[in-house]
Amino acid sequence: MRVEAIVKEVGLFTGRLHREHEGKQETWVYDYVDGLMPMLARMAEKRRTGMRGLGYHEA
After folding, report:
1. Stated pTM of the model
2. What distance in Å separates the CA atoms of residue 41 and residue 7, rounded to the nearest whole number?
3. Among 1, 10, 26, 27, which residue's CB has the most CB atoms within a 10 Å radius?
4. What gap in Å lies between CA 27 and CA 3, rounded to an integer?
């Protein structure tokens, strides 16, 4: 999957979280990863790349 496609996909997921609601101050995104499964670890790395492309950083 190309980086542009990954950024777009992650943007769709996180964009919903950023919708404004009364009293909402900030948005945190948690990505739980099962790093012991190679396929899931690769998928997580792609998401991480997409999140960086959108300006997110790891805490």
Report:
1. 0.72
2. 17
3. 10
4. 23
